[in-house]
C-alpha cells in the first residue's frame, strides 16, 4: 500500500529528509565556494612549491659541482708530482691527458712557489702566465680559497680556486685554478620552469651569470635590475612569500629564488603568470561543474527517497537494530518486490544476516587457533631477535666479538675486578705492515691473514679470556685475573707464534709479525684509559721497529724481556 500525501507531510522522517536536503544544498554551495578558493590558492602554492623544490635540487647540483671541483684541486695539491715543485715534473703532470680531461675549455690550473712566482701551468704553449684575481697570502691550508666572480679575456664568468701545496724542501706553494660558469650551463639549459619559464643565475652583486638569451644578457656585464627586478638584493632578500614580479617585457612572473653565500651564486626561477592563471581557470570550471552536478544529484536522490525508500528503509533499519542488539534469530526481511533496489537490498541484507551468523561461529572456532599462532610467532620473533643481537656483537670476517661488544665485556670485568679486587690486563695487537699485504697480495689475502692471526691467538687463550677485533688490523685481548708480568708472557707467546707461522693463500707464502702493547687495569684511571695506555705502548712498539711486546708501567713504555711460557 502506497503512502498517502497526509502521511508524507506528517512523517518526521520526511520532515528530517527535507531539512537534510536544504542543509546539504547550502553546505554543497558553501563547500564548493570554499573548495574553489582553496584550490585556487593550492594551485598557486603547488606551482610555487614545485618550482621551489626543483630550484633547490638544481642549487644542490650546482653546489656539488663546485664542491667536486674544489675537492679535485685539493687532491691534486697532495700528489707527489705537484708537491715536488719541480717545473718539468709538475708541468708534465698538469698537461697529461688524465689531468687535462678534468678541465673544460677556458679553464686553467697553475702552480706557484712560496714566493708566489709561477712554476708551471697546464697551458700547451709553454707556461704562459695567467693572472688570477686572488690574494695568494690569504689561501688557507685548511680549505680551498675562492675568489669573487670575474671575467677574463674570453668574457666568460669565472671564479679562482686556490689551495696550499705543502712541500718540506721547497716550502709551501699555491695551486690555483679557475672555475668556468660554462660547467653549469648544461644544468641551467636543461632546467624547466613550467612550460615557458625563465631561469637566471647571478652573483651577490646582481650581475647576470646565466640567462637563456645569452647573446643579449651575457655579452658584457648586465645586472638583474635591467630585467625589471627593481632593487632586489638576492643576498639579503629573505621574503619567502608567494608573489609575482613584473619584468620590463610587460609580463608578470611567479618568482622563486635561492642564494648560496659560500659560492656567491643565486638562482632565480620565473614562471609566467599566464600559466598559473590557466591552471586556476581550469579549477574554477571544474568547481562549477561539481556544484551544479551536486545540486541536481541531491534533488533527484531526495525525490527518489521520498517516493520509494522511506517505509522499506524504516523496516530495514528496524531489522538492523535488532541484529545490532544481538538478535540473530529474527525472521528474514521481506520486500514487496525482489526486482527493484529495495528488493535486492533485502536479498543482500538477508545474505549478510546469514553470513554474520556463520562467521561468528567460524570466528569462535578460529580464535583458539589464532592465539596458538600468536604464541608461535612470538617465540619465532624472540629467536630472531636473539640472532640479530648476536650478529650485532660479532665481527663478520673473523667471527670474533666486535669493538662494541668488547667494551661491554670490559665494563663487566671492571665491575668484577673492583668487587673482588682482582687485577686484569689488556693486550692491544696490531699486524705489522698489513697495508703492504693488501697492496701486494690483494684484499682477499689480507682477509685470510686477519682470520689466520685471529684463529692463532684465540687458540692460545684460556676459555675465559676474550679476543675481539677492534678495527682494521687491530685486535684487543682481555685477560681476567692476570697481572702485567703474566700478561707480558702471554703477549710474547702471541708474538712468537705469529712470527713462526706461515700463511698460505693462492699458492703464496705470507709471513707476518705483530706488535703488542700491554697495560694492567688501574681502577684510579678507568678502563678507557687502560685501553689508551695499551694503545700508546703499541704505538711505541711500532715506532721502534715493530714485532715486539711493549709494556706500559710507571707512566712509561718498556719493552718486554720476558720469555714465553712453556
Automatic annotation (TrEMBL):
<dbReference type="GO" id="GO:0052621">
    <property type="term" value="F:diguanylate cyclase activity"/>
</dbReference>
<dbReference type="GO" id="GO:0016020">
    <property type="term" value="C:membrane"/>
</dbReference>
<dbReference type="Pfam" id="PF00990">
    <property type="entry name" value="GGDEF"/>
</dbReference>
<dbReference type="InterPro" id="IPR003660">
    <property type="entry name" value="HAMP_dom"/>
</dbReference>
<feature type="transmembrane region" description="Helical">
    <location>
        <begin position="289"/>
        <end position="307"/>
    </location>
</feature>
<keyword id="KW-1133">Transmembrane helix</keyword>
<feature type="coiled-coil region">
    <location>
        <begin position="353"/>
        <end position="387"/>
    </location>
</feature>
<dbReference type="InterPro" id="IPR043128">
    <property type="entry name" value="Rev_trsase/Diguanyl_cyclase"/>
</dbReference>
<feature type="transmembrane region" description="Helical">
    <location>
        <begin position="12"/>
        <end position="35"/>
    </location>
</feature>
<feature type="domain" description="HAMP">
    <location>
        <begin position="311"/>
        <end position="361"/>
    </location>
</feature>
<keyword id="KW-0812">Transmembrane</keyword>
<dbReference type="Pfam" id="PF00672">
    <property type="entry name" value="HAMP"/>
</dbReference>
<dbReference type="InterPro" id="IPR000160">
    <property type="entry name" value="GGDEF_dom"/>
</dbReference>
<dbReference type="GO" id="GO:0007165">
    <property type="term" value="P:signal transduction"/>
</dbReference>
<feature type="domain" description="GGDEF">
    <location>
        <begin position="422"/>
        <end position="554"/>
    </location>
</feature>
<keyword id="KW-0472">Membrane</keyword>
<dbReference type="InterPro" id="IPR050469">
    <property type="entry name" value="Diguanylate_Cyclase"/>
</dbReference>
<keyword id="KW-0175">Coiled coil</keyword>
<dbReference type="InterPro" id="IPR029787">
    <property type="entry name" value="Nucleotide_cyclase"/>
</dbReference>
<protein>
    <recommendedName>
        <fullName>diguanylate cyclase</fullName>
        <ecNumber>2.7.7.65</ecNumber>
    </recommendedName>
</protein>
